[in-house]
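ok here's Diacylglycerol O-acyltransferase, seq below lol
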Amino acid sequence: MEKKNFLERDDLETMSMEPLSPMSQMLSSPNLFIVITFGFKTKCNPSTFVEGFKTTLINAPRFSSKMVINYKKNGEPVWIPVSIRVEDHVTVPDLDYPNIENPDQFLEDYTSRIANIPMDMSKPLWELHLLNIKTSNAESVLLAKIHHSVGDGMSLMSLLLACSRKTSDPSALISNSPATKKPVKSMISAWWLIAGLWFMIRVTFTTLVEFFKLMLTTCFLRDTENPLMGNPEDGTQSWKVIHRIISFDDVKLVKNTMNMKVNDVLLGMTQAGLSRYLTTKYDGYTMAQKKKILEKIRFRGAVAINLRPATNIESVEAFGKRIFGNTSLAFSNVKGPDEEISLFGHPISYVAGSALVGSQALNIHFISYVNKIIINLAVDTTTIPDPHQLCDEIVEALKIIKSAVQEKRSHNMEV
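and the structure came out like this:
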């Protein structure tokens, strides 16, 4: 049940209120939040984290404010600063670690369990779970559950960097370097002008076509029924959150050989992995029947971007619900630090995270960290009961692409 806090009339005169941004208003449901997993290379010290967050995290206004309803402004939610005890937001479960047979599975189940519990809206919208459990990729983990109105992936990554220090230099802050751009050679010729004009025509035409398709989607154009599409009408979701770590060098190899961007590689391997997964769902059909079925499937993803000041949040919310309700997938990626960092003296091994938003049964998020890329899947198990198979198909797709790229490079070297 959704919990709401209402301001009393007397409180309105004494409290300082900050209105929510349009995006935060759209994401004010207690069921919309982000679950982040930090894997550490050492055992974690809970008291060190508590003291560290007292001097960093709660200095961010939204981490020391709670969301309440202001009845004087048509029931709009607002941020109200409150006094806060970090200890009330940190959970250190008392677990029998030596008797946990499969730590990786235990962590996955624990993460999925907290992902299925609505956020407590009566206090600042974040909570932390510290587990001194050794997994395949870490000696201990920190699970952070943060409401989506507090921040998105990019803002939370920036906050992580502000709280962290370089592992190589514990006194130095780290900055997330922007992607490098290739220098553009100055060329002025008739051929260059013609090519530039043709490029502009293609971009304009493609933009118009995609805008027209977007309008159709907001009105009525839904994805066709497929094994990955949830039912937004039933209102029930059972989340399973998993992640897989792959080599960033493999992605860069494909990127550099094919002269494209990292985003292109991630989208390409995702598309190929989804195609491989869907193919397995029609194994009982002949090849001709399977091909015919797959060709008729309309499968699209929604990529959320930041919204700047808007005047009509109802229109924005309705627009978002239609987009997410008529598509099968939510997709995003976040660029992490290029060098290893430590959080309050604990070297980080990896950072994983999934945003549970929208009505789709499938959310795919990529996060980079040094020489790793973490594939994150949040799935509704009532629609997708085998998320590990789906993740395997995405990883296998990258291996196939990498193999083809290496073969191409070898052929070019021979020529």
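fwiw Confidence is low (pLDDT under 50) at residues 6-10, 306-311. kinda neat tbh
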